[in-house]
Every structure is written in C-alpha cells, then in structure tokens.
Amino acid sequence: MNELKSPTISDMERNILKISTELFLNQGYDKTTIRQIAEKSGIGRGHLYYYFKKKEDILIHIFKQILNKIYDDVIENSDDKTEILLSYATIQCIYTYTLVLNEKLFRIYLQGSNIEIVRRAAQDILIDLCKKKAKDMNYNISEKDICFSITIGYAGECELLKRFYHGEKNFDIDSIVKSIISTRLLLLNIIDYKQVCLIVDKAMKEAKKFDYNNIIEKLHIFEF
C-alpha cells in the first residue's frame, strides 16, 4: 500500500503563506488571527509556530523573499557589476514597481507598512542588502549613511505609495520612484545632485525593461 508523501517544509511554508495572504486580503491583517491561519492551513497552532511565530513574521518573510529575488536578478543581469550605486538604485526602482504592478502585493505592503515591527524589519532587510553589495565590491559607504538612506527613504516611500494607492492626484508612480531613489542616493553622501540624477534616470530605464511577471511567478505566494 502506497503512503501519501508528507509535504516538504518548503511546501508547507508556501501553503501557509498562500492561506495567510488570502486571509489578509479578504478580511484585513488586523482581523486575521494565528488560529484562523492554522485552521485554514490544516495544521495545529503548535505546528504553525514551528514556521512562523507571529503574523508579523509572515509579512516579513514575504518582503524578504521579494527583495532577495529582485537583488539576485539585478546582480545576475547587471552589465556593470562594479557599479554599486546603479545596482542599489535599480533594485529600489524594481522593488517599488513590483509593488504597484501587483494589486494583491500592494495591498499586503500597505497593511505591513502600518505595523512598526514590519516596517523596521523591511528597513533592516534593505540595509543588509546594501551593506552586502558594498562589501562585495569593496565600496566605501559608511554604515551610518546607509542606515539614514534606507530609514528616511523608506518613510517617504510608505507615505507616497499610500497616497498613490488612494488615487490622490499629482502622485504618478514614475515621479514617486524618482523622488524615493534620489533621496536615498543623496543621503549616502558620496555623490552630488547631478550625478544622482544621471544614476536615477539610468536605473529607471533599466527597471522598465525588467520582467515583473517573472518575479511574481517565482514567489509562488499570490496564486490561489
């Protein structure tokens, strides 16, 4: 008699992420409980805690997965792997466009941006990615400037994207992306405004050529 094969850890995590995302979208993050996620996933709460201790951990996992995928794709396809500032700007551009081009993902992002622990975790992920790239390329950017660039830039990003989502006029996505990336580059304190503008323009052109469907498909989260 053949036994059913138990799902692997990655399969279980993927199922939990799908169920959680569906619940967050249908009834809101605040009204979704760990108990509901466990029941819908067909597991006990103790089993769920093995993978995710809190709801916040699920959102953090989603953001980290997205950013790591974008980072890997940008570095892999970069024509100039030594240009850290262009890579940094391109990653930020693609990340923002990825959010707004997928309505489900955008709504999850907005819910997460209202939660302090998720905001801080998202900032830490971006900081770690930037520090890693700088170290890989032996680029001299102070940790303090990286932290200021990410933290202040993220706060502005959240506010601008909320206004864009709610349809406020004068908030088109290209202008928002340009503002976010310009601010972050200037706060690194290593290039002037003219150089920033050149990098941002090039990064936005690179971002327009990116395969956004490929990112979403590889995440395996938003397919119900």
Uncertain regions: pLDDT < 50 for 5+ in a row?
1-8
What order do the SSEs take from the amino end to the carboxyl end, as H and E?
A: HHHHHHHHHHH
Proportion of strand residues = under 5%
- Enumerate how many helices there are, as a single number: 11
Helix content: over 70%
Separation of termini?
A: 32 Å
Radius of gyration: 19 Å
Structural class of the secondary elements? mainly alpha
Biggest sheet statistics: none
Average pLDDT, all residues = 83
Query: What is the 3D shape?
Result: globular
Number of strands: 0
Description:
The structure is a single chain. Helix 4 (55-77) packs across helix 5 and helix 5 (84-101) runs antiparallel to helix 9 (173-186). The chain has eleven helices and no strands. Helix content is 75%, strand content 0%. It has helices spanning 9-27, 34-41, 45-51, 55-77, 84-101, 103-113, 116-136, 143-165, 173-186, 193-208, 212-219. The two termini are 32 Å apart. The protein has 224 residues and is an all-alpha fold. The radius of gyration is 19 Å and the shape is globular.
Q: What features would you highlight for this structure?
A:
224 residues; DNA binding; single chain; Homeodomain-like_sf; mainly alpha
Q: What secondary-structure arrangement, pairings included, does this model have?
A:
Blueprint: H1 9-27, H2 34-41, H3 45-51, H4 55-77, H5 84-101, H6 103-113, H7 116-136, H8 143-165, H9 173-186, H10 193-208, H11 212-219
Short description:
The protein is mainly alpha-helical and 224 residues long. The chain has 11 helices and no strands.
